[in-house]
Amino acid sequence: MKKDGVKRLLGGFLAIGLFLIVWWIGHQVLQKPLLPSPIEVLKRIPSLYEKEILIHLQVSSYRIFLGMLYALVGGFFLGLLMGSLPKWKYFFDPLIYLTYPIPKMALLPIVMLLGGLGDGSKITMIVLIVLPQITISVRDAVRNIPSNYYDVYRLIQASKWQQFRNITFPATLPGIISGARVSLGTAISILFFTENYGTEYGMGYFIMDSWTRMDYGAMYAGILILSGFGLLLFLLLDLFSWWICKWQRTTD
């Protein structure tokens, strides 16, 4: 685990270094205000505290956290229902397959009309993105549990709760985390887009507001902060996965 962590850390630093070098070369070639140097942008970040950047980041964090939480909880119980009870599968499977391919951004006007311009519509959009992925992951994980696992617990007269705690729930955890990892980047992208409507706070609003004012240094600094925020979420998710899925440590 330690060696793997060191390799990931070194790989991350190399990737960031390569990105900054390519960015600096692009700045030198273009020599335009549209693409300031990475050094100028990094120096600009401390001054953004005067522009309430922490409030923007806090608002975006709140929306992402609630959206992911609702989607994870709802997707878990819905997937558990579909995987455990066949009669629910016949109802929800066609519904998910019918609605999943729909571009969720096409639903934004409807969500904003029904939920207003506040946090509710933005959180709802995140839920719409993440919920189907979590639901499908949990459903498939439950269906793939070998039936003989439950037979052993029935022989020792284990309760339904013991079967759920020791078999079903651990089997669904990798699927939940994998679905969250896949959906997180899309959720941040959707949040960025929705924060351009009906709000004055959020990283999406800050970045686009800086762009309209042609404050390109603040715009790129905001993009870096949003990227760093996304990276932090992915790292926390990996750490949580390593902590909660203890049985996978020996196989990773």
TrEMBL record:
The chain crosses the membrane at residues 9-26, 64-83, 95-117, 167-193, 218-245. One of its GO terms (cellular component) is plasma membrane. The keyword Membrane applies. It is a multi-pass membrane protein. Residues 57-237 form the ABC transmembrane type-1 domain. Its main location: membrane. GO terms for biological process: transmembrane transport. The keyword Transmembrane applies. It holds the Pfam family BPD_transp_1. It is found in: Cell membrane. InterPro entries: MetI-like, MetI-like_sf. Belongs to the binding-protein-dependent transport system permease family. This is ABC transporter permease. The lineage of its organism: Bacteria, Bacillati, Bacillota, Bacilli, Lactobacillales.
